[in-house]
Design goal:
With 199 residues, the protein is α+β, with helices and mostly antiparallel strands. It is built from eight helices and four strands. Strand 1, helix 1 and strand 2 form a beta-alpha-beta unit.
């Protein structure tokens, strides 16, 4: 298998962490690329031109990150990161969706900030930041409700918080959120997180 990724992409990092936690690195080749340069190999795998994109040994391509994460979770012999059924499954999926939505907002702020100042929308940036803050205020409760110590919900939230550190330090997300900060400090020490740290 080949996984196209950008080192700074929180979406790709989520999948890279899943692959490591599932013990799949012996069967996975990671291919770093810059999607903004429109690499032909990435476009051949994902017509959207986005990372991550996973290419299976038979040539089938899988995208985007929630789909790739679920596919990888079906491989290997490690405990499942997504429960098969019941309330536990949906607690994990909702926590992962919360992190995914916050990541979408954070990336939107990043990209908007790269536009010429006259073309930027302060109103849109304000709405995106507000959604991130609301998510941060709810995140610890979701994490505490997850089954076990390691699920896709944990990984998605950890990668989102890492992205905020990378691109949005001014947000100071730890301020007033000691519990969430303590959780991230412990989770971020996992080898899979350290190996995929974009800093």
């Amino acid at each position: 298998m080949q996984l196209f990724y950008s080192p700074t992409s929180p979406y790709a990092r989520k999948c890279r962490v899943v692959a490591r936690e599932r013990g799949l690195m012996g069967d996975l080749e990671e291919v770093a690329c810059n999607p903004m340069e429109d690499p032909a190999a990435l476009h051949a795998s994902n017509p959207l031109g986005r990372v991550p994109a996973l290419v299976l040994d038979d040539g089938m391509a899988i995208f985007d990150s929630p789909v790739i994460a679920e596919y990888l979770d079906g491989l290997g012999n490690a405990p499942a990161l997504i429960p098969a059924a019941g309330s536990a499954r949906f607690k994990v999926l909702v926590a992962a969706a919360l992190a995914q939505g916050m990541t979408d907002s954070a990336l939107a702020v990043t990209m908007e900030g790269r536009r010429p100042e006259a073309q930027q929308s302060p109103e849109a940036q304000k709405r995106w930041r507000a959604s991130i803050v609301r998510g941060l205020d709810e995140m610890l409760g979701h994490l505490q409700g997850l089954p076990g110590d390691l699920t896709l919900g944990h990984i998605a939230c950890g990668c989102l918080l890492g992205y905020l550190d990378l691109r949005h330090g001014a947000l100071e997300w730890r301020k007033g959120r000691d519990g969430l900060a303590a959780w991230f400090a412990e989770f971020n020490a996992r080898p899979a997180m350290q190996e995929t740290d974009p800093n």
